[in-house]
Amino acid sequence: MNAISEELPESGFVLRYRTDETDDRLSGKEGTFLIYSYWLVSAWLVSALAVVGEMDRATGLMERLLRIASPLGLYAEEFEVDRARHLGNFPQAFSYLALIEAAGRIILNDVRQELSV
Q: Which residues pair with 32 in a beta bridge?
């Protein structure tokens, strides 16, 4: 989790891999991979139950991800940060599955905090 958040971020989102370090035989730069960004939210939330301080990172990334939705609230497979546009398959079901899981973990964490008070 820490390796991903340290080695694959781009403007707060997560790349699938670094195109300058991997020969994928494709030209140009790849966008950030939204499913990986949502998975990172979920991973931080899971660790937040054991390690203090990860909740802020998780909710910050979740809010950033929610802000980049298209005007219709849709997400693609990738997001090009520099030009603020969606790339790849559109809409992308995997991005939504990860969004739902991340949102569910935020809600679960909030409910646990309310019940422990």
A: 79
